[in-house]
Amino acid sequence: MTRTIDAIVVGAGQAGPAMAARCGREGLETVLIEAGEMGGTCVNNGCIPTKTLVASARAAHIAKRAKDFGVTVSGTIDVDMRRVKARKDAIVGASRKGVGDWMHAAKNVSVIRGHAKFVGPHDVEVNGQVLSAPRIFINVGGRPSTPGLTGIESVPYLDNIGMMELEELPEHLMVIGGSYIGLEFAQMYRRFGSEVTVCEMGPRLISREDEDVSDEVRAILEREGVKVQTGAQCLSVEKRGERIAVGLSCGPGTPQLEGSHLLVATGRRPNTDTLDLNAAGIQTDQRGYIIVNEQLESSVPGVWALGDVNGRGAFTHTSWNDYEIVAANLFDQGRRRVSDRIATYALFTDPPLGRCGMTLEQAQATGRPLLMAKMPMTRVGRAREAGETQGFMKVVVDAESKRILGATLLGLSADEVVQSILRIMYADLPYTAIQQAMPIHPTVSELLPTLLDGLKPVPA
To answer: Which of 261, 283, 280 lies closest to 165 in space, CA to CA?
Structure first.
């Protein structure tokens, strides 16, 4: 027998609970379906646990640097990985409980635990029951993808989820993948005390960034003792006793690494393959992402895809923004489009990388006249005072409109400071608006006007 309701939300990640709560507030009888833990990737094995571990790693790093600040620490600096994990688990548990409590208290919202699959355009089956609704919101997220490496099926490798469960310190952690997830874990475990080697098939780390950013991130990691191997073509892995060997190139005499643990961080895939989307007529692309329009509606009217499953963003903040777009258009007479948002994200190494808008390379591809300014963090008084002067700040401006096209901040508090530039971009104000404001001293942000004073034409 089919039960007809007003709205179905499949998945309790970043966007799902908010969407369910909003539907409930609008007087819609809503069911939220979740097969796993409440909170999705961010709460359970993404942002919250990784940043908790980053904080523990930073504490260890600062303790080891204590003498640089005139502080004497007696004895050795030891890292208890069981206590590190226990702290992480407690914070994750509290966050997960918070999402559950929110949904329990939400008006007109009920939660069903189970696996959902489509049996029609607006019909979803869960635990043997069929639910039908004119509004369905898919927010099932993604999971680590397994690369086609020779021998991968024969070794006990870790992904970002498995890394969360470690209670021991790897003697030598080998990381395949030189992008955001891999680099955060690499620095983190080096600070905990592991030997760490990053293997990247491409010619440089985080290849989506400008080359100077890749170079500086690599230098920061190598200063802490992380080994980096780029251009590692034809990677292969094999079990060697109790250890794991990684082949770095093709052909006879292939150079190899040998370590105790292997982290594979080479990408993610959407969790759409078990939803039976074909039964609903919901179209996906070749990678499994649900195809959506500017309002995030799928090929079936009344079915929306939010978060990682739509391929329009791979971050918690893009998932939340998906919710805001859909809710505004449905309930607030909004006219919001996903293409209106400005790309922004951070790499949470230490120091962090804060990015918004275009890279210099992307801006140059537009063919417009450009201005650019770049300043090392050694110029920033607050960074010198903190003893954290690695990195630089860079901004790209349209020479004619004076609008900021993009900014790259790599340094102390960069993940926070970049957002002041992002807001100027959303307000569609010229860069001079930053120069005319009076900043607080001593801060990192106060150097933004000075940075902009150094704008110079970019050669065509």
So the answer is: 261
Q: Is 441 a catalytic residue?
A: yes
- C-alpha 294 chain-centroid distance: 22
When the candidates are 3.40.1190.10, 3.30.390.30, 3.20.20.150, 3.40.50.720, the CATH number that belongs to 344-457 is 3.30.390.30
Task: Give CA angle at 18 (17, 22), nearest 5°.
Answer: 115
pTM: 0.95
Q: How far apart are CA 150 and CA 43, in angstroms?
A: 33
3-state DSSP assignment of residue 209 = coil
| CB of 114 closer than 8 Å to CB of 31 | no
Residue 146 CB neighbour total at 10 angstroms: 14
Question: For residue 446, what is the DSSP state?
Answer: G
Which one of 3.40.50.11260, 3.50.50.60, 3.50.80.10, 3.90.1150.10 gives the CATH number of domain 2-144+269-340? 3.50.50.60
Q: Are 273 and 214 in contact (CB under 8 A)?
A: no
**How many angstroms separate the Cα of 104 from the Cα of each of 31, 110, 234?**
11, 7, 50
Taking only the tens place, the pLDDT of each residue in 102-160 is: 999 999 999 999 999 999 999 999 999 999 999 999 999 999 998 888 889 999 999 99
The whole-angstrom separation of Cα 428 and Cα 451 is 19
Contact 260, 244 (CB under 8 A): yes
Structure tokens of 342? Answer: 């400005």
> 9 φ, ψ to 5°?
-115, 120
**What three-state secondary structure class fits 86?**
helix
Residues of the chain below pLDDT 70: 250-254
d(CA 264, CA 126): 33
How many CB atoms neighbour CB 312 within 10 A?
A: 22
